[in-house]
Amino acid sequence: MEKKINLSIIEGDSFFAHEISVNFNPTQFVLDFKNITPRMDPRSQEGPTLCIKHNVVLIEPFHLKKFSEFLNKRIGDYEKEFGKIEQPKAVEAYNKKQKKMKTEKEDKQIPSYFG
């Protein structure tokens, strides 16, 4: 006798993640994917509003390790086909600028004992 199973698939919405945080406890990892979008309302006198959306994935350590292996393989396949993934030039320039500004700020806060 064959049993029939009703199957309902609910597909999630596409989600662009600007940031991710990873936390864990003894039984699971928590992957928190974040999308941060500035919202401008010309009528508001308070300035821009940041809209932050989260998509959280809970995963067991063993499955996360298997996912990591799979992801590394897929990244390797991508790089074989399209070339090495590198940091965009604009991001590199921004990071250098931020590092320089941080260094200049720290230099002002550190007392000089040499004159």
Q: What does this protein structure show overall?
A:
- Helices cover 37% and strands 24% of the residues.
- It has two domains: 46 residues, no CATH class; 49 residues, no CATH class.
- 0% of the residues are buried.
- The chain is built from two helices and three strands, in the order βββαα.
- By secondary structure, it is of the alpha+beta class.
- The chain is extended.
- The C terminus is likely disordered.
- Strands 1-2-3 form a three-stranded antiparallel sheet.
Task: Please render the helix and strand layout as text.
Layout: E1 19-24, E2 29-39, E3 49-59, H1 61-82, H2 89-109
Unreliable stretches covering 5 or more consecutive residues: 111-115
State the domain count: 2
**Order of the strands making up the biggest sheet:** 1-2-3
The number of helical runs is 2
What would the average pLDDT be, to the nearest integer?
A: 87
Structural class: alpha+beta
Level of helix content?
25-40%
Q: What spatial form do the alpha-carbon principal axes imply?
A: extended
How many DSSP-defined strands?
A: 3
Distance between the termini: 93 Å
Q: How large, in whole angstroms, is the Cα Rg?
A: 23 Å
Instruction: Work out the strand percent.
Output: 15-25%
Largest sheet: 3 strands, antiparallel
What letter string, H or E per element, gives the SSE order?
EEEHH
